[in-house]
Protein backbone atom coordinates (compact mmCIF):
# COMPACT_ATOMS: atom_id res chain seq x y z
CA UNK A 1 0.00 0.00 0.00
CA UNK A 2 2.80 2.42 0.92
CA UNK A 3 4.63 1.62 -2.32
CA UNK A 4 1.45 2.32 -4.35
CA UNK A 5 1.02 5.66 -2.53
CA UNK A 6 4.66 6.55 -3.24
CA UNK A 7 4.15 5.65 -6.92
CA UNK A 8 1.04 7.84 -7.19
CA UNK A 9 2.90 10.77 -5.60
CA UNK A 10 5.78 10.31 -8.04
CA UNK A 11 3.41 10.15 -11.00
CA UNK A 12 1.70 13.35 -9.84
CA UNK A 13 5.08 15.09 -9.57
CA UNK A 14 6.15 13.90 -13.02
CA UNK A 15 2.85 14.96 -14.56
CA UNK A 16 3.38 18.42 -13.07
CA UNK A 17 6.60 18.58 -15.10
CA UNK A 18 4.57 18.24 -18.29
CA UNK A 19 2.72 21.10 -19.98
CA UNK A 20 -0.93 21.59 -18.93
CA UNK A 21 -3.29 19.13 -20.60
CA UNK A 22 -0.48 16.77 -21.59
CA UNK A 23 -1.72 13.65 -19.78
CA UNK A 24 -3.53 11.53 -22.35
CA UNK A 25 -4.01 8.08 -20.77
CA UNK A 26 -3.36 5.03 -22.98
CA UNK A 27 -0.35 6.51 -24.78
CA UNK A 28 1.55 6.91 -21.51
CA UNK A 29 4.62 4.74 -20.91
CA UNK A 30 6.64 4.66 -17.70
CA UNK A 31 10.17 3.66 -16.79
CA UNK A 32 10.16 0.15 -15.34
CA UNK A 33 13.90 -0.33 -15.32
CA UNK A 34 16.47 2.40 -15.82
CA UNK A 35 19.98 3.48 -15.00
CA UNK A 36 21.93 6.72 -15.18
CA UNK A 37 25.74 6.55 -15.19
CA UNK A 38 28.30 9.30 -15.15
CA UNK A 39 32.05 9.52 -15.39
CA UNK A 40 34.59 12.25 -14.83
CA UNK A 41 37.94 11.69 -16.57
CA UNK A 42 40.46 14.13 -15.15
CA UNK A 43 44.28 14.03 -15.43
CA UNK A 44 44.75 12.47 -11.98
CA UNK A 45 41.49 10.61 -11.34
CA UNK A 46 38.68 8.70 -12.99
CA UNK A 47 35.38 8.90 -11.11
CA UNK A 48 32.39 6.73 -12.01
CA UNK A 49 28.98 6.36 -10.38
CA UNK A 50 25.51 5.15 -11.29
CA UNK A 51 21.93 5.20 -10.08
CA UNK A 52 19.07 2.81 -10.76
CA UNK A 53 16.57 5.35 -9.38
CA UNK A 54 15.56 6.71 -12.79
CA UNK A 55 11.87 7.52 -13.05
CA UNK A 56 9.98 8.85 -16.01
CA UNK A 57 7.04 8.92 -18.35
CA UNK A 58 6.59 9.29 -22.10
CA UNK A 59 3.39 10.29 -23.91
CA UNK A 60 3.70 8.78 -27.40
CA UNK A 61 0.74 10.73 -28.81
CA UNK A 62 2.02 14.17 -27.89
CA UNK A 63 5.70 13.07 -28.01
CA UNK A 64 6.43 14.64 -24.62
CA UNK A 65 8.41 13.23 -21.71
CA UNK A 66 9.60 13.86 -18.16
CA UNK A 67 12.46 11.99 -16.47
CA UNK A 68 14.16 12.44 -13.13
CA UNK A 69 16.87 10.80 -11.06
CA UNK A 70 17.40 11.14 -7.31
CA UNK A 71 20.94 12.53 -6.89
CA UNK A 72 21.76 10.93 -3.48
CA UNK A 73 21.05 7.50 -5.03
CA UNK A 74 24.30 7.54 -7.07
CA UNK A 75 26.69 4.79 -5.97
CA UNK A 76 30.18 3.83 -7.03
CA UNK A 77 32.83 6.52 -6.64
CA UNK A 78 36.36 5.74 -5.46
CA UNK A 79 35.56 6.07 -1.75
CA UNK A 80 32.68 6.86 0.61
CA UNK A 81 34.30 10.26 1.28
CA UNK A 82 34.22 11.06 -2.44
CA UNK A 83 30.48 10.23 -2.51
CA UNK A 84 29.96 12.54 0.48
CA UNK A 85 31.80 15.37 -1.28
CA UNK A 86 29.71 14.76 -4.43
CA UNK A 87 26.45 15.14 -2.47
CA UNK A 88 27.47 17.87 -0.02
CA UNK A 89 30.00 20.09 -1.82
CA UNK A 90 29.27 19.78 -5.54
CA UNK A 91 25.66 18.69 -6.10
CA UNK A 92 24.34 20.10 -2.80
CA UNK A 93 21.76 17.32 -2.95
CA UNK A 94 19.94 18.44 0.20
CA UNK A 95 18.91 21.59 -1.67
CA UNK A 96 18.75 20.03 -5.16
CA UNK A 97 17.80 16.35 -4.68
CA UNK A 98 16.75 15.62 -8.29
CA UNK A 99 18.04 16.07 -11.81
CA UNK A 100 15.16 16.46 -14.28
CA UNK A 101 14.87 16.41 -18.06
CA UNK A 102 11.47 17.23 -19.57
CA UNK A 103 10.44 18.23 -23.04
CA UNK A 104 9.44 16.95 -26.46
CA UNK A 105 10.72 14.54 -29.12
CA UNK A 106 11.23 16.77 -32.15
CA UNK A 107 11.35 14.10 -34.87
CA UNK A 108 8.20 12.95 -36.64
CA UNK A 109 8.31 9.20 -36.05
CA UNK A 110 5.56 6.66 -35.57
CA UNK A 111 6.39 5.12 -32.21
CA UNK A 112 3.44 2.76 -32.67
CA UNK A 113 5.52 0.79 -35.19
CA UNK A 114 8.30 -1.55 -34.16
CA UNK A 115 11.78 -0.50 -35.15
CA UNK A 116 14.86 1.44 -34.14
CA UNK A 117 14.67 5.23 -34.22
CA UNK A 118 17.28 7.93 -33.76
CA UNK A 119 15.48 10.95 -32.32
CA UNK A 120 16.31 14.27 -30.72
CA UNK A 121 14.80 15.13 -27.36
CA UNK A 122 14.53 18.89 -26.82
CA UNK A 123 13.78 20.17 -23.38
CA UNK A 124 14.88 21.65 -20.09
CA UNK A 125 17.65 19.86 -18.22
CA UNK A 126 17.70 20.86 -14.55
CA UNK A 127 20.84 19.92 -12.62
CA UNK A 128 21.92 21.56 -9.34
CA UNK A 129 18.82 23.78 -9.58
CA UNK A 130 20.01 25.36 -12.85
CA UNK A 131 17.86 24.91 -15.95
CA UNK A 132 19.48 24.63 -19.39
CA UNK A 133 17.73 24.06 -22.70
CA UNK A 134 19.25 21.02 -24.38
CA UNK A 135 18.81 18.87 -27.45
CA UNK A 136 19.92 15.33 -26.68
CA UNK A 137 20.19 12.50 -29.21
CA UNK A 138 18.38 9.34 -28.14
CA UNK A 139 18.11 5.87 -29.63
CA UNK A 140 14.67 4.30 -29.18
CA UNK A 141 14.00 0.65 -29.93
CA UNK A 142 10.29 -0.19 -30.11
CA UNK A 143 9.51 -3.90 -29.68
CA UNK A 144 6.66 -5.86 -28.06
CA UNK A 145 4.88 -2.71 -26.75
CA UNK A 146 8.09 -1.62 -24.97
CA UNK A 147 10.65 1.08 -25.52
CA UNK A 148 14.36 0.63 -24.92
CA UNK A 149 15.91 4.09 -24.80
CA UNK A 150 19.57 4.97 -24.57
CA UNK A 151 21.59 8.14 -24.78
CA UNK A 152 25.05 9.45 -24.02
CA UNK A 153 25.77 13.16 -23.63
CA UNK A 154 28.08 15.60 -21.83
CA UNK A 155 27.17 17.97 -19.01
CA UNK A 156 29.39 20.98 -18.36
CA UNK A 157 29.62 21.69 -14.63
CA UNK A 158 29.92 25.41 -15.29
CA UNK A 159 26.54 25.39 -17.13
CA UNK A 160 24.88 24.28 -13.89
CA UNK A 161 26.82 26.48 -11.48
CA UNK A 162 28.79 23.56 -10.01
CA UNK A 163 32.10 24.92 -8.75
CA UNK A 164 35.36 22.96 -8.71
CA UNK A 165 37.82 24.06 -6.00
CA UNK A 166 41.38 24.62 -7.26
CA UNK A 167 42.68 21.92 -4.94
CA UNK A 168 40.82 19.21 -6.91
CA UNK A 169 41.08 20.85 -10.33
CA UNK A 170 43.18 17.98 -11.73
CA UNK A 171 40.96 15.30 -10.11
CA UNK A 172 37.55 16.42 -11.41
CA UNK A 173 36.74 17.06 -15.05
CA UNK A 174 34.72 20.19 -15.92
CA UNK A 175 32.81 18.00 -18.43
CA UNK A 176 30.92 15.00 -17.10
CA UNK A 177 29.92 12.17 -19.47
CA UNK A 178 26.41 10.87 -18.80
CA UNK A 179 24.71 7.77 -20.17
CA UNK A 180 21.08 6.80 -19.70
CA UNK A 181 19.45 3.46 -20.43
CA UNK A 182 15.83 2.64 -19.69
CA UNK A 183 12.97 0.30 -20.49
CA UNK A 184 9.53 1.91 -20.70
CA UNK A 185 6.30 -0.07 -20.65
CA UNK A 186 2.61 0.91 -20.80
CA UNK A 187 1.54 2.67 -17.63
CA UNK A 188 -0.05 0.36 -15.09
CA UNK A 189 -3.62 1.16 -14.12
CA UNK A 190 -3.37 0.20 -10.42
TrEMBL record:
The keyword Protein biosynthesis does not apply. The keyword Signal applies. It comes from the Bacteria. SUPFAM superfamilies: YceI-like. Residues 1-24 form the signal peptide. Keywords: Signal. InterPro entries: Lipid/polyisoprenoid-bd_YceI, TTHA0802/YceI-like_sf. It holds the Pfam family YceI. Residues 66-183 form the Lipid/polyisoprenoid-binding YceI-like domain. Gene3D superfamilies: Lipid/polyisoprenoid-binding, YceI-like (2.40.128.110). This is YceI-like domain-containing protein.
Amino acid sequence: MLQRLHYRRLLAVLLLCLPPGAYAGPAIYEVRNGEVRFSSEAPKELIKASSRKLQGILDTEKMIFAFKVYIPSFMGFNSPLQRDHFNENYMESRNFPDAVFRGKIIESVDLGREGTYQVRAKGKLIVHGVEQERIIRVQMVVRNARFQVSSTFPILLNDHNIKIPRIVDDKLSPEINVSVRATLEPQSRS
